[in-house]
Prior knowledge:
Elements: E1 23-31, H1 35-45, E2 50-54, H2 60-63, E3 70-77, H3 80-91, E4 98-106, H4 111-116, E5 121-123, E6 126-130, E7 142-146, H5 158-170, E8 176-180, H6 186-193, E9 197-201, H7 207-217, E10 224-226, H8 231-241, E11 245-251, H9 254-259, H10 261-266, E12 268-280, H11 285-292, E13 300-308, E14 311-318, H12 341-344
Parallel strand pairs: 6-7, 8-9, 8-11, 9-10, 11-12
Antiparallel strand pairs: 1-3, 1-4, 2-3, 5-6, 12-14, 13-14
Helix pairs in contact: 1-3, 5-6
Amino acid sequence: xxxxxxxxxxxxxxxxxxxxxxxxxxxxxxxxxxxxxxxxxxxxxxxxxxxxxxxxxxxxxxxxxxxxxxxxxxxxxxxxxxxxxxxxxxxxxxxxxxxxxxxxxxxxxxxxxxxxxxxxxxxxxxxxxxxxxxxxxxxxxxxxxxxxxxxxxxxxxxxxxxxxxxxxxxxxxxxxxxxxxxxxxxxxxxxxxxxxxxxxxxxxxxxxxxxxxxxxxxxxxxxxxxxxxxxxxxxxxxxxxxxxxxxxxxxxxxxxxxxxxxxxxxxxxxxxxxxxxxxxxxxxxxxxxxxxxxxxxxxxxxxxxxxxxxxxxxxxxxxxxxxxxxxxxxxxxxxxxxxxxxxxxxxxxxxx
Length: 352
């Protein structure tokens, strides 16, 4: 495999780019009407880029205008297991929308094309800037430098931007934030820039290195740490030791968020917030039902639903009565944090 590290200019702080690993390509032939849905499934599975190509050879009925137009979508993944899972999820799309799905190793991860077209992205009070893109600071906005490497979390997907927008309204200086499925660490780093102590967890083996590197790029590495324990272990610790988080974010595939609902709520502090995304606007009910069915000791209330491009992020608040051993704090309406809050606020280190 070609080594692209030399092609990526160093970021402004002199940190080396994250190394690439072996890659596998998922190729999907689908109808043009389903292309956006297929691409979103691939994005949610963790690809850093989706390429669309025209179908050169089409069936006779399609050439004659009797069948739907087709398109090929290509996405790269860091290992075959992840690629196979992505292909399986795409194959589950019904209605004849997907004509074929295949997985094959590639000599090039294909990320150069994605990097060539990458631009700075505005999300909430942040401007997400790829480390290899020239960008001048904009007054009133917090610049967040990012190299996602082989992880999910470039900031280009609507769900990432939705969660960043929610974080900006929720996080207060001194909060402890848990980022479940942290990927590149973008959400954890954003929380730290807002004045919080952030912890990231993920099943992706590339996540620890990438998260730590990106935290260093943004000079918040002393406020962002990676925890290699699964969410179930943190939930057990919450039950046995009472260690919980003021804000928990989970930007994952909808079925995964639903499956993790009980543990996600368990690690939220009484009066704290849970933000979940990776949810299509027309498929929110399973998540709402999962939270509603957890019982009074894990009572949560939906306080906000924000949407973008067919995706939604839901914010829940945990009942202040969920843990009777705690004083019941008065819930104040969170205000939008200022972009330079990390520099202005007096930090209080809290280790969960």
